[in-house]
Design a protein that fits this description.
Blueprint lengths: L2 H20 L1 E3 L1 E10 L6 H6 L4 E7 L2 E8 L2 E8 L5 E7 L2 E7 L1 H7 L7 E11 L2 E9 L5 E7 L2 E3 L14 E9 L2 E11 L19 E4 H9 L1
Parallel strand pairs: 1-11, 7-14
Antiparallel strand pairs: 2-3, 2-13, 3-4, 4-5, 5-6, 6-7, 8-9, 9-10, 10-12, 12-13
């Protein structure tokens, strides 16, 4: 092997090592996203319901808890990625539901994101001090949305947000659709502080007052 090739391989190795050290891994901590409805909505009253809404994600190894709160109510998902089991807690008005979930149930819930593809562009912005690149996501049905992600930060748990599991970094701002509304999620806080294990309680007995349903039953209830 000639000296130029050796030097080239050494340089590539150094660059790779530098990138690894630069990318911080969030194995345990909290991410908070503020939720806003894009202007121009034809349903202003429904848009007002999302005023002050937020999504909080708690991570602890393979454990994940996602809390979505708005004036309409709250949805909490708790999942252990090791076995795929978990449940969804929904509380809207006087209705309190506990929906049991298996790995296949999660897969069905997220099937719209299967085969999602990301194309990174040149546009950048800074969110919470992290440099983010803009990417366009294309779903298998042809619909698209934008996401800004940072390569400076990643998570140990790659499955906590199915739509972004193949994204080469952490999504800090992205779009979504809720009915006819365009909704934007923007990270407002990232904490590396330890999360109490009680946040991930998968003992159904701890959630008294909730009506328990299977995932299939919840689908039938929603369609009625």
């Amino acid at each position: 092997m000639n000296s130029k090739r050796i030097l080239g391989l050494m340089a590539a190795g150094l660059l790779s090592t530098s990138f690894c050290y630069a990318q911080k891994i969030l194995s345990e901590g909290t991410i908070v996203y503020d939720v806003t409805v894009q202007t121009g909505s034809k349903e202003p009253q429904l848009a007002d319901m999302f005023d002050g809404a937020s999504t909080t994600i708690y991570l602890k190894g393979s454990l994940c808890r996602v809390e979505m709160k708005s004036a309409l109510g709250s949805t909490v998902t708790i999942q252990d990625e090791k076995n795929g089991n978990g449940f969804v807690l929904k509380e809207y008005g006087n209705q309190k539901l506990l929906i049991s979930m298996t790995k296949s149930d999660w897969d069905d819930l997220n099937k719209k994101y299967q085969g999602i593809k990301f194309v990174t562009g040149k546009e950048t912005k800074t969110v919470l001090g992290y440099k983010c690149q803009k990417a366009t996501a294309t779903l298998k049905d042809g619909s698209t949305f934008s996401v800004y992600y940072t390569s400076e930060l990643t998570t140990e748990n790659k499955e906590f947000d199915f739509q972004f599991r193949n994204l080469p970094g952490l999504a800090l701002e992205y779009e979504s659709s809720v009915g006819n509304l365009k909704v934007k999620y923007t990270a407002s806080k990232i904490s590396f502080d330890p999360v109490p294990v009680q946040k991930f309680n998968l003992d159904k007995a701890a959630y008294r007052g909730y009506r328990e349903l299977t995932y299939a039953e919840s689908i039938r209830l929603k369609s009625n």
